[in-house]
Amino acid sequence: MPSSRKCLPGRAAFEAFAMPEFSPDVSASDSSASADEPVDVEDVDEEAEDVLSARAPDREEQVLDGIGVAPGIAIGPACLYAADAPEVNPRSLKEDAIEKEVQRFEEAVERAEHELETVISITRQKLGEDSAGIFEAQRLMLRDEALYGAVVEHIRSDAVNAGFAIESVLRHHRQRMEAGPNEYLRERAADLSDVQNRLIRHLRREHLLASFKPGSIVFAENLSAADVVLFSRRRLRGFAIDHGGSTSHVSIIARALGLPTVAGLGKATDAVESGDPVVLDGLRGEVVARPSEAHRERYHARRERYKRQQAEQKDLASLPSQTADGTHVKLSANVEFSQEVALLEEYGAEGIGLFRTEVLLMMRGDVTLSAESTFETYKDVVERTAPQTTTLRLLDLGGDKLLPLAHREENPFLGWRGIRVLLDKPDLLKTQLRAILRASAFGPVRILAPMITHMDEVRQLRAALEEVKSELRAEDRRFDADVPLGIMVEVPAVALRAGVFAEEVDFFSIGTNDLTQYVLATDRGNDLVAHEYSEFHPAVLALIKRTASAAQAAGIPISVCGEVAGDARATPLLIGLGVDELSASPTFLPEIKHVVRAVNRSEMRALAGSALSMHSAAEVTARVDEWLRTRAADIMRFLDPDPEAAGGD
């Protein structure tokens, strides 16, 4: 990775993509400056088409596999970005230069504050107040006496340059946090790194966006969420990141801003040079550097299909979600930001199948929930979703989500998480239940409990719910006394005894991400074994079938809300196994509905039955692909990167 943070544009491909400059100074006080004005998308697309042929690659094509964390297809020149500021060497100051250096540090702090205020303004406008909270926390860090005061003291007492003082002080605090016993502190350590890099950049008066041309695809080892927000002003096409996954702040922000992103690429920054033509596929999690003629044609066609599907989504959104033989399949949305509620009608969602409360914590940079602010957030979402139903999941803390622990867990996915945390922290549980019940006065609501393993957990949760209801009645508060209570089916023990649980709860929601990890004993975040992870494994499908059958026998609804619910390839399998609701990111719903409307449920049942008798995920996916080509060929032409294999255009 180059030490320079700048994208060097001295290549034909980059020049072919050059567009009129926007103001590079993101510290401008007006967050609605020209960088936020609309860009002629057709002009950008035409230049993107030119990029791939503007420069004959002097190195071979390279295909890089990662995790698609924000959907979309981007074509453009690579632009390498080093998010981490280079190491600062100590420099001794003469006595008469010390106060000038303190002033230089103060000016850098002011510029960093101004920049973060811009980030906060953009984020608040595009994503809402909750999302802006993480950046507000960073802004406050700049003036924290333990940091600000310590840097000033270091400059004065040791007569050293401001950059070295910043690095020394923040490194000390960061190392303590990184060595801390919990994920929450490690998340805050990442914020400190971002603050350090921002301050050093402003000491050097570097403008983050000055050398980034609109239309570029940013390659970085790491990115901060603030970087993503600022880059969005520059009309960059997408992000290819060596590290990270779908639950990181960066991924959440990129999805919300509609910027195609692939993370977990490993060493993508070593595979490209600034200016290399690149194709980035945020749907498949694939990046192609210096694509061959065949790959260029394939992705041009694939992107055109994607654009057509996007253009057709409004027409599809108004059509009923029912199979060719008339069976209704409910399509709901997974929502992380309250602003995403506006997408429900656009993409044809029938309510919210999963609202992730823990994202509020991540974005606020806090581990406590204010009763009133939680209620206001829930109320806003419920009111805007009504008359359709909002399913509010209780905090799913632990595992890969931030949680302050008194000790470090060797295996957090099998440790203190989900309902286990909530039952051990009754005040936290009651705060959420109280907020949900109060919000139920403004529209239909369901309560979803995460990480259930034992029946006793369900009964303790019901008891807590009844206790909160009694308190609200005593206060003469309005609420729906019959709010349904459901559970996530993500632990094999629950799936195996689904019939028993179905008698005690009002609905099931299958969390395939964790269920698959537990069934296959595979950590999908571990590069050494991630290839073993697949929701299409017959053992996973068998547990989905078992759970669906139990739900049907008890007469309760059953949905799938894991990532596989957003995979159109999996749609016929899930419906065939007996699932009657799919909940996914709103942008995935049109293609899912297309598959639903293209085939009969009886055919899907037959497909699912044959999949259950197979021996591997590879067998299942091959069979599903073959099956879809004969029934939803246009979807397969989009999903399959090889047009010929998918039946051509």
SSE blueprint and pairings:
Blueprint: H1 12-16, H2 41-54, E1 62-65, E2 67-70, E3 73-80, H3 98-127, H4 129-142, H5 145-158, H6 162-178, H7 183-203, E4 217-220, H8 225-233, E5 238-241, H9 249-257, E6 261-263, H10 268-271, E7 277-281, E8 286-289, H11 293-317, E9 330-335, H12 343-347, E10 352-356, H13 358-364, H14 371-385, E11 390-393, H15 419-424, H16 426-439, E12 445-449, H17 455-474, E13 485-489, H18 492-496, H19 498-502, E14 507-510, H20 512-520, H21 538-554, E15 558-560, H22 571-576, E16 581-584, H23 589-598, H24 601-612, H25 617-629, H26 633-639
Parallel strand pairs: 3-4, 4-5, 5-6, 9-10, 9-16, 10-11, 11-12, 12-13, 13-14, 14-15, 15-16
Antiparallel strand pairs: 1-8, 2-6, 3-7, 7-8
Task: Explain what you see.
- Strands 1-8-7-3-4-5-6-2 form an eight-stranded mixed β-sheet.
- Among the domains are: 150 residues, Phosphohistidine domain (Glucose Oxidase, domain 1, 3-Layer(bba) Sandwich), CATH 3.50.30.10; 109 residues, Orthogonal Bundle (Enzyme I, Chain A, domain 2), CATH 1.10.274.
- Helix content is 48%, strand content 11%.
- It starts with 11 loop residues before the first helix and ends in a 10-residue tail after the last helix.
- The chain has 26 helices and 16 strands.
- Strand 4, helix 8 and strand 5 form a beta-alpha-beta unit.
- The protein is an alpha/beta fold and 649 residues long.
Key descriptive features of the protein:
Enzyme I, Chain A, domain 2; 8-stranded parallel barrel; Glucose Oxidase, domain 1; alpha/beta; 26 helices; about 650 residues
